[in-house]
Amino acid sequence: AGVMDICVVDNSCRKTPLGVLEGLECEFEGYRYLKPAQNLGYFGAAQAALSEAGDVSVRYDWVIVSNVDIA
């Protein structure tokens, strides 16, 4: 099986990061948790994650951008 990279952008108005999400960085290779200083908006948060990933067109076959309230 291949390795999956996951980047979570906590784009909430909450000042402190969600400990459970932040703590996963120590447990899973390829997992990154970003907590911007301010809400970046949907596309700003997506851009932050894509910037963190580097050149996605070279590194990945698929990139999924999702929002917590998409059902």
Layout: helices, strands, pairs:
Blueprint: E1 6-9, H1 19-23, E2 31-34, H2 41-53, H3 56-59
Order of helices and strands: EHEHH
- Span between termini: 28 Å
Strand runs, count: 2
Largest sheet: 2 strands, parallel
Low-confidence segments, given as residue ranges, are none
Number of helices: 3
Global mean pLDDT: 79
Give the amount of beta strand, in percent: 5-15%
Structural class: alpha+beta
Tertiary shape: globular
Rg measurement, Å: 13 Å
Question: What percentage of residues falls in helices of 4 or more residues?
Answer: 25-40%
Which strand order does the major sheet show? 1-2
Kindly describe this structure.
With 71 residues, this protein is of the alpha+beta class. The protein is 31% helix and 11% strand. It is built from three helices and two strands. It has helices spanning 19-23, 41-53, 56-59; strands spanning 6-9, 31-34. The chain has a two-stranded parallel ribbon. α1 links the parallel β1 (6-9) and β2. The protein starts with 5 loop residues before the first strand and ends in a 12-residue tail after the last helix. The relative contact order is 0.21. The mean pLDDT is 79.
Give a quick set of tags describing it.
alpha+beta; 71 residues; 31% helix
Can you give me a brief rundown of this structure?
The protein has helices at residues 19-23, 41-53, 56-59; strands at residues 6-9, 31-34. By secondary structure, it is of the alpha+beta class.
